[in-house]
Design a protein that fits this description.
mainly alpha; about 150 residues; about 75% helix
């Protein structure tokens, strides 16, 4: 992940996108890493949110396509796991997009929302807000406690 922090905003965007799709690593730690290198927190918020949101929307789109071989191969989500989310999707609908950033279940939510064709516009807006709030919390924690915070999460 160090090579991504060295790329600045481009690395933050790329890493945030990939972290929400196919590569399992933490976009949160990447964000803290670029902040520790001195990047602007508010530009970083916009870049990380946009990259992570586009990655989540890619998962939504792959779910919308409904091609099992793509979902299982690229996103590593089994048909059984996706079908097990149907009750939650039917109950909560687009509101689950707020939680699409969560580890493990978030990707499944994004794929399932697309697969069950839940309102694209609402999902996109809610997913963006959920991811932005998550990154905003990390930035505020970093701004409040700075280097002590970096040492604590390392």
């Amino acid at each position: 992940m160090e090579w991504l922090t060295g790329l600045g905003y481009a690395g933050l965007f790329t890493g945030s996108f990939l972290a929400s799709t196919i590569i399992p690593f933490s976009s949160d730690l990447l964000l803290i890493g670029v902040l520790a290198l001195g990047l602007n927190p508010w530009i970083s918020l916009a870049v990380a949110t946009t990259g992570n949101w586009l990655g989540g929307m890619t998962s939504y789109w792959l779910g919308w396509l409904g091609k099992w071989e793509w979902i299982e191969r690229w996103l590593r989500v089994s048909r059984r796991k996706l079908e097990s989310q149907k009750e939650k999707i039917e109950r909560w609908g687009a509101l689950l997009s707020f939680l699409a950033w969560l580890p493990v279940v978030g990707d499944v939510f994004a794929i399932a929302l697309g697969f069950y064709r839940i309102n694209l516009k609402l999902c996109a807006v809610y997913m963006f807000i959920g991811r932005m709030v998550r990154f905003l919390v990390w930035i505020l924690l970093y701004l409040k406690w700075g280097e002590a915070f970096v040492r604590w999460i390392s």
